[in-house]
């Protein structure tokens, strides 16, 4: 038996409009590609509720209580690097209940907590922050003449065969990805810019197996 075709909200509104214009229920079903009984139930529901929207449903009740949900959320915020399986064990010890790891995932997803790679930034102590803030205050009002002798530089490393991040691929069983031993090397590109010079300085490239410095 083929699965029942779901009627969208837009088509439900069209069906009600056609019925109000005098179109028969069988003709409405033919236009929408559904059975006559579907149109009859839709019309009856509209007459009872004056709406074609689905009524909210309670669904299956959660296995965990609100107290257990708060415990899971608090543990995830305090121990951000811990897995859901460890949270499951902690919850079993604290509340003497046993839930699956999937249930822990669902409770965390409901509050917007998902397993993601953390953003990386330099570790700064309080002294580092004070020094950087003092540097900004001391140089915030420098003129163009004062900045003329300052060299602004930056550098970037480019891998020859792969990137440093975690790579994910869609694959079937048995697919193997080729890799180069020791990463295959990389190229470091450095460039500088100074206001006192007429043109920006050309970037320099360091190659792993080539000359020490190339332009």
From TrEMBL:
GO terms for molecular function: DNA binding. Residues 69-140 form the Transposase Tc1-like domain. GO terms for biological process: DNA integration; DNA transposition. InterPro entries: Homeodomain-like_sf, RNaseH_sf, Transposase_5, Transposase_Tc1-like. Transmembrane segments: none annotated. This is Transposase Tc1-like domain-containing protein. It comes from Littorina saxatilis. The lineage of its organism: Eukaryota, Metazoa, Spiralia, Lophotrochozoa, Mollusca.
């Amino acid at each position: 038996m083929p699965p029942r075709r779901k009627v969208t909200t837009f088509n439900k509104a069209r069906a009600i409009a056609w019925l109000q214009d005098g179109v028969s229920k069988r003709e409405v079903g033919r236009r929408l590609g559904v059975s006559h009984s579907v149109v009859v139930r839709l019309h009856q529901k509209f007459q009872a509720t004056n709406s074609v929207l689905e009524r909210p449903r309670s669904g299956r009740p959660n296995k965990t209580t609100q107290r257990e949900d708060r415990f899971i959320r608090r543990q995830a915020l305090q121990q951000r690097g811990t897995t859901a399986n460890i949270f499951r064990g902690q919850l079993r010890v604290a509340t003497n209940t046993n839930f699956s790891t999937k249930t822990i995932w669902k409770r965390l997803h409901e509050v917007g907590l998902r397993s993601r790679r953390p953003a990386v930034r330099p570790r700064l102590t309080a002294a580092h922050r004070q020094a950087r803030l003092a540097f900004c205050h001391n140089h915030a009002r420098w003129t163009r003449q004062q900045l003329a002798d300052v060299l602004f530089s930056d550098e970037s490393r480019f891998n020859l065969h792969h990137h440093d991040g975690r790579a994910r691929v869609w694959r079937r069983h048995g697919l193997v990805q080729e890799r180069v031993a020791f990463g295959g090397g990389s190229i470091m590109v450095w460039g500088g810019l100074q206001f006192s010079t007429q043109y920006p300085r050309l970037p320099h490239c360091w190659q792993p197996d080539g000359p020490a410095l190339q332009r």
